[in-house]
Write a sequence for this structure.
């Protein structure tokens, strides 16, 4: 069976969950082969986890050049690998970086590309959701191999232990790969919460939370449920919570098992980012708020009363 | 600074949007069409740069004849002129061929900075900026929440999951922006009047030297096989808080095994 290249994404905490989803999906199409793109020594820390989820082979491209520039050197490495091993498909995460690598690959290989997929069949047919989650689209790459970027939380990763061989790749970034130089990476404090786009529980606050200080209610409930914190654009624009936590059309798309909306009206641009959540719960004092149209469970009430009581109740049940 | 801003016309994300039953393309006839919201931030950023450093802003759109409304709206914010790539053969173009056509048009415009939105609200593909950079062999600074221009050096801050990165490049470069970068101006009455007289250069595929077989449905590198309306979510239970809303909420979460 031909290899299916999975472009690995990792964070400080290790391999991202979406990569494990990709490895799970890759098994349906061919032999999963993980491609690690990082600084010197990047692959070693990830190998055990990639093996656990079925990587039969690990390609390790490790170099300062990979870390020192925006995605272009990564795309060059993957394009060369594709030409050499003729994989059945290239799977990436539908994140900013995954889409950017996919974009460059498509041009280098004169190949089609599909982003924001939520599923992929063995024959290369991808499922995408369009227009704020209202439309389901089936599409296919018609020139070249399937290059498909998958949205995080599209499927449940399943372990399938393998014993991969590791092959290191030489990184030969061209001059034009080195035009956009990363001069600094600044970590902003985030605490121990799961990454927003990958979390299985997301608790979001909107304008109804009313202040930055009051977002501690949202954080407390999120922490009790082991979830991530999100925010509506109105909450972000009002300075209640940082932009990287914005959910919606111009923020993150999330698809958790449980989404709790606190003081969020449910505007279409907000729905765009959370409509495919499995279970939706809303607390809003306005019984007419559109968020109730899609909530599986809604509480009409003041979040300042309902949320602390819910938090107490969860603690009591422990 | 010579700046070209890429502006796409898209169906209004606040209204109903759909795909056509016959060819699975975005139904532009049924939709109310507007400038891709993210591109308004690119226009604003371009104007701010030329106000501070001198130079000229050109708007570039590839889209059907009806996109001229959006071009006038863009010009009313302040850019000097526009290029409109319009050709019947472009219908059904995929991202790969769109980037080919736009790259061909950029070839003649001698831009120091090509500014675009981070993504379009209809496709949300977020691929065009890097495709263009790859084709043109110039730097791509994407996802900027802040852009600083110092001579020919461009520096951006871009949000990441962990925090942010500072990335720098020399012109010419493609820069894409998020909506956190600025607050777009509203066109003034004077701006709207002036926009009516600003030059809009219309280009066909032949003008750009791109063959019709490379674009549209004929040249597409991917195809939409099928589409369907997702069953709308139905509303579930709704309770009014009578002093026990929090407890009820947790009871629900417990039956669903979340606590
Ligand atoms: C181009 C564009 C892109 C956009 N992108 C996004 C996006 O990515 N994400 C996004 O979220 N929005 C986005 N928006 C904005 C969107 O249209 C809404 O304005 C926004 O989602 C509203 O946020 P909100 O629900 O927090 O605020 P509001 O609409 O003001 O709703 C606040 C809600 O809180 C309730 N409330 C108030 N006090 C309490 C209380 N004490 N207890 C309980 N409930 C209370 C109110 O009843 C109300 O329903 C976008 C808009 C545009 C035009
Ligand atoms: N047809 C088009 N005409 C002009 N600019 C476009 C077009 N398509 C995309 N763009 C630009 O590319 C950006 C990213 O688009 P996309 O890759 O489609 O998400 C948009 O915000 C626009 O600035």
């Amino acid at each position: 069976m031909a290899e299916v290249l999975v472009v690995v994404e990792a964070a400080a905490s290790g391999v991202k969950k979406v990569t494990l989803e990709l490895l799970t999906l890759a098994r349906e199409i061919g032999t999963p082969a993980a491609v690690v793109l990082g600084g010197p020594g990047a692959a070693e820390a990830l190998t055990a986890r990639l093996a656990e989820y079925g990587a039969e082979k690990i390609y390790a491209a490790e170099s300062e050049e990979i870390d020192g520039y925006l995605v272009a050197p990564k795309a060059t490495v993957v394009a060369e690998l594709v030409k050499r091993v003729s994989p059945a498909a290239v799977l990436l995460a539908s994140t900013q970086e995954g889409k950017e690598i996919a974009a460059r690959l498509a041009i280098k290989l004169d190949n089609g590309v599909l982003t924001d997929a939520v599923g992929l069949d063995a024959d290369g047919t991808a499922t995408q959701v369009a227009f704020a989650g209202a439309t389901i689209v089936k599409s296919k790459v018609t020139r070249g191999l399937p290059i498909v970027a998958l949205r995080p939380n599209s499927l449940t990763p399943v372990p399938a232990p393998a014993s991969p061989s590791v092959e290191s790749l030489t990184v030969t970034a061209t001059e034009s790969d080195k035009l956009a130089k990363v001069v600094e990476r600044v970590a902003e404090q985030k605490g121990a919460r799961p990454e927003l786009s990958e979390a299985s529980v997301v608790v979001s606050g909107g304008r109804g939370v009313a202040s930055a200080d009051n977002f501690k209610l949202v954080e407390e409930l999120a922490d009790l449920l082991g979830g991530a914190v999100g925010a509506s654009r109105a909450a972000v624009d009002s300075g209640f919570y940082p932009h990287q936590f914005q959910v919606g059309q111009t923020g993150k798309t999330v698809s958790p098992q449980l989404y709790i909306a606190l003081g969020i009206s449910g505007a279409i641009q907000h729905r765009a980012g959370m409509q495919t959540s499995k279970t939706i719960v809303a607390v809003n004092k306005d019984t007419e708020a559109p968020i109730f149209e899609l909530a599986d469970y809604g509480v009409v009430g003041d979040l300042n009363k309902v949320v602390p009581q819910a938090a107490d109740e969860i603690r009591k049940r422990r | 600074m010579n700046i070209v801003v890429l502006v796409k016309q898209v169906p209004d994300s606040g209204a109903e949007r759909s795909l056509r039953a016959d060819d699975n393309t975005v139904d532009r006839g049924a939709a109310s069409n507007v400038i891709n919201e993210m591109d308004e931030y690119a226009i604003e950023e371009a104007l701010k740069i030329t106000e501070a450093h001198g130079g000229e802003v050109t708007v570039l759109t590839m889209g059907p004849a009806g996109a001229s409304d959006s071009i006038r709206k863009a010009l009313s914010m302040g850019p000097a002129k526009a290029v409109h790539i319009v050709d019947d053969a472009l219908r059904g173009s995929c991202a790969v061929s769109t980037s080919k056509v736009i790259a061909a048009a950029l070839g003649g415009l001698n831009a120091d900075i090509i500014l675009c939105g981070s993504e379009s609200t209809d496709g949300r593909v977020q691929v065009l900026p890097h495709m263009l950079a790859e084709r043109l062999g110039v730097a791509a600074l994407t996802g900027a929440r802040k852009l600083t221009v110092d001579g020919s050096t461009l520096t951006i801050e871009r949000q990441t999951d962990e925090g942010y990165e500072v990335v720098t490049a020399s012109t010419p470069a493609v820069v894409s922006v998020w909506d956190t970068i600025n607050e777009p101006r509203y066109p003034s009455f004077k701006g709207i009047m002036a926009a009516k007289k600003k030059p809009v250069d219309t280009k066909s595929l032949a003008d750009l030297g791109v063959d019709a077989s490379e674009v549209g449905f004929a040249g597409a590198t991917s195809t939409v096989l099928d589409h369907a309306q997702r069953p709308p979510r139905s509303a579930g239970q709704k309770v009014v808080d009578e002093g026990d809303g929090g407890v009820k909420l947790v009871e629900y979460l417990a039956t669903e095994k979340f606590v």
